[in-house]
Amino acid sequence: MPRHSKPPTTIYSWNVNGLRAVLRKGDFQSFLAAHQPDILCLQETKAEREQVVIDLPDYHEAWSSAAKKGYSGTAIFSKTAPLKVTTGFPAAITKKFTLVDSEGRDVMDEGRVITAEFERFYVVTAYVPNAKDDLSRLPLREQHWDPALLAHCKRLEKTKPVIVCGDFNVAHTELDLANPKANVGNKGFTDEERAGLQAFIDAGFVDTLRLFREGNGHYSWWSHRANARARNIGWRIDYVLVSASLRSAVRAADIHADVMGSDHCPVSVVLRG
Predict the structure, then answer these.
(1) Backbone angles phi and psi of 93, in degrees to 5
(2) Which of 77, 161, 217, 253 is surrounded by the fewest CB atoms within 10 Å?
């Protein structure tokens, strides 16, 4: 029997910027029919499960919604039932970090993290807090959230490999946004946020897209202003990172800029069976 006899696994991540809106436009249904991901991770769902009219008979669903209605939220849909699903960070992580912003808002009430355990690996999807225009959430990001997410993934990695994906709300390098010089120090391109993502790379995680794509022009988010998407004046802030032990299993990674419905587009990875 061939060593890799199982079919490949396709994992997609998409910040839908409001799942109900994408469903109303029909973009979610057409995306699902065309791409048929084995595992689909969503961010910024902005809804609780009972608010969403959606029929997914082929998928097992896991949701984490924010306490605040119509805000944030994540979900994981998978064709194979996860062995276990958890939301947020475990107590071992939350005890070490202060996950409350400068206005006293607890980010653990914002539905930002889901972890699903499968036979071969963990999938963690995250909607990383935006630093805000005034950078008021930057201390939270730098000192607590980013290191907490990494610590969570490294803790899981002691058991089996990890795939962590989602909207990281940061362009990692100057190659990951169209206008780097004009945005130095702005939210999404501060030294602190970039260092938070670099810490994943330093810890051995692999930015899967960069195994296949070099240079700039590969963006996953565009402003609604100035016809930015049509002109591809964008940012790459959505990532699929994998444990170093999975690097050799990565067959493909891509950005699907043709998929409409949100100001973000899906990003994906294909793992051999």
Answers:
(1) -90, -45
(2) 217
Query: Per the residue annotation, which of 12, 59, 122, 127 is the catalytic one?
Result: 127
One-letter identity of residue 95: K
Non-local CB neighbours of 205 within 8 Å, separated by 6+ positions: 153, 162, 164, 241, 242, 243, 244
Domain ranges of the chain: 9-271
> 9-271 belongs to which CATH class?
alpha beta
Query: What amino acid occupies position 62?
Result: A
Known catalytic residue at 239 = no
Query: Average pLDDT in the 32-47 region?
Result: 97
Residue 1 confidence (pLDDT): 44
Q: What stretches of the chain adopt beta strand conformation (E)? A: 9-15, 39-43, 60-64, 74-78, 84-87, 113-117, 122-127, 162-167, 206-207, 221-222, 234-235, 238-242, 250-255, 267-271
Kindly list the distances between the CA atom of residue 104 and the CA atoms of 99, 134, 136, 137, 156, in Å, as whole numbers in the listed order: 9, 16, 12, 11, 29
Sheet hosting strand 162-167, strand order edge to edge: 84-87, 113-117, 122-127, 162-167, 238-242, 206-207
Strand order in the sheet with 9-15: 60-64, 74-78, 39-43, 9-15, 267-271, 250-255
Catalytic residue among 38, 101, 167, 238: 167
pLDDT tens string 19-37? 999 999 999 999 999 999 9
pTM of this prediction? 0.96
Taking the mean position of all CA atoms in its chain, how far away is CA 21? 19
Question: Is 207 noted as a catalytic residue in this protein?
Answer: no
